[in-house]
Every structure is written in C-alpha cells, then in structure tokens.
Amino acid sequence: MKVFYTCYGSAHSSVVAAAIHLGYLPKERVPPATEFLHLPYYDRNPSKVIGTPFFMGADPQGNEVYIMGLGAEKALIRRIVKNFLEICGYPASQVLFVDALNGIPLITKIGGILSRSLGWVAFGRRLTIYGLQKHYFHLVSLVECTQEYLRKA
Amino acid sequence: MTEKKGPKKIIYHCFGGAHSSLVAANIHVGRLSFDRPPTWEELMALPGYEQRTAKDHGHIFYVGNDEYGNEVYVLGRRNYSSVARRAIYGIARVIGLKAGEVVMIDAMPCVNWLMVIGGYLSRRCGLVRIGRPIVVAGTRRAFYYLCALALSVKERYALPNKETYP
Fold first, then answer.
1. Most buried of the four, A20, A52, A85, B82, by CB within 10 Å?
2. Which residues of A touch B91 (CB under 8 A)?
3. Which residue of B has its CA nearest to A8?
4. Type and span of the H or E element at A100
5. How confident is the model at residue B158 (pLDDT cuts 50, 70, 90)?
C-alpha cells in the first residue's frame, strides 16, 4: 500500500503527519521546535514543486509513505491522479490519500505563506511550528486512524 | 534518463478538455483530416466536443490509439497545468512506469480568444446558443496551430519505434 499525506505545498502539515506515521516524531508528547526542523523536507519545498510526490520512508508493515502538495484545487488534482491510476491499470485499493491539511490552524497557514511564498523564512517557520505544536495531537489521531485502516486493509 | 521505446500514453490537456485538446487528440489519432478546417458537423460529431462541463474536469478521457500504438487521452485541468503535470509525472514514477512512458502535451498555446470567450459562454455560463458558434469559429481559426501541435507530437513519439532510432 502507498500512503500519500497531502497538504497545500508538501512543506509542513503533510511532512509532520508522515513523520509521525514513520516514527520520526513521538506520539505521546509535543516535540520541541528543533525536532521539527530536523525533519526531511520540513519547510524546504518551494512552490514550484507543488504536485510532486516525495518519498518519506516505509513503515514496519511495508507501506510506503509519501508526501504530496495538491495546491489550491485538491479535489481536482486528486481526481486527476485517481483517473491516471485507472488508465494505467494500477489498483486503486493500493493507494491511500490522507488529507493532512484538514483543520490546520490559521497561524500555520499564515506562517507557510510567509515562509514559502513571501520568503520571510525566519519568522514564518517559527509560526508554522507554533501552530503545528498546538495542533499536534489532532495529527497524531489522524495518523492513528490511518494506521488502523492500513492494518485492517 | 533514457526514453522508453514502445507505446506511450499521450495526454493532451487544456482548461476544460472540451475543445482544443480534444481536437488536437482527434487530429493525432487521425479522426480529423488535417488538410482543411473541419466543418460544424465534423466538429460536433467528435465524441465529447462541446459536451464536457465543470464536473468532468480532472477526468482523463480515452480518445483512441494512433497507428504506432500510442494511447491518446484528453484531460481538463483548469488553470493548474503545472501542478497536474508534476502530479502525473510524479505518480507515474511512484507506480514504477519508466521515464517517457507518459507524455503530457499542453494544448493551451494554440487557443485563441474566440475559443476562450465562446468556451466560457457555452460551457461555464450555459449560453450554448451564443457560445457555440463563437467557439466553433475559434476552433476553425486555431485548426492549423492544433494540427502543427498534434503532428509534431505524433512525429516525435513515432520515432522510438523505428529501427533506425539509437
């Protein structure tokens, strides 16, 4: 099974969700800012890679975990990918899209815009981490639901 | 990276997948002759022409096979051409397709303002009576540009099957 954690630009929330899934970040406590900054791809992907899937790692069950930015029209891009898998004859049951952007606090989005679109990295990055720390256990429960689903599937 | 020899999936894409990309794809598979602009009836006889609406955006429609075995598709991707392109190429890599097995061709450079206005009126606003003659006139005017696009694409992706290709 291939799991795609998606958000707007594959820079913040999807990276953190994938990192929780793979065990790079703990599930029982909110990690400090340095742990966020040491994640691969955290606040690194520029706007011009939106749409590209990035491989984050494989979990112990052998599921491959990817992150992917879908831009502003997530339903459209998801539909394009589903249709593309269909014309390639790839089984749709082998691919799972998880929206990590759902319910992300506004401060993370503002920080993401400041850091990624406007280039004010030092301040924007701090805002994204602050917002994600507030939101952390929601992402943990999202990942736990995903892992539960993967175990059943 | 070396290009894979053999049949490819060629996806023509434009805003709605209803006009320019569809005509280019039909020229590619040889359903439209390219020596003269098509008539109203010929255009309306194309499956999907002037029929797709906003709910079809994002769906990849099969048009046909060309004589080299390439499969030709049409996609409407609104204004997200680069995101769609990166998503499709990226997913192709993830599911193990070889480089060059999927090709995306943007048909928007061939589009003129008549097609934009007519397509907007007919498809977005639902004013078919007003928009359709405009978009058909625009398609006839853009026809040789679409021919040039489709035939150059066809020629480029016909080569790897020939014996002379390195």
1. A20
2. 53, 81, 84-85
3. B83
4. none
5. confident
pLDDT greater than 60 at residue A14? yes
Cα angle for residues B54, B153, B26 (degrees, 5° grid): 50
Query: B34: burial class by Cβ within 10 Å (0-12, 13-18, 19+)?
Result: middle
pLDDT digits (tens, 9 = 90+) for A88-107: 999 989 999 999 999 999 99
Q: How far is A88 from chain B (nearest CA, A)?
A: 9
| Number of CB pairs, chain A paired with chain B, less than 8 A apart | 83
Rounded CA gap, B84 and B104, in Å?
A: 9
Query: A58 — contact with chain B (CB < 8 Å)?
Result: no
pLDDT tens by residue, A55-72: 999 999 999 999 999 999
CA distance A8 to chain B (A): 11
The DSSP code for A48 is G
ipTM, interface predicted TM-score of the complex: 0.92
Q: What is the pTM of this model?
A: 0.91
Task: Flag if B94 and A53 touch (Cβ within 8 Å).
Answer: yes
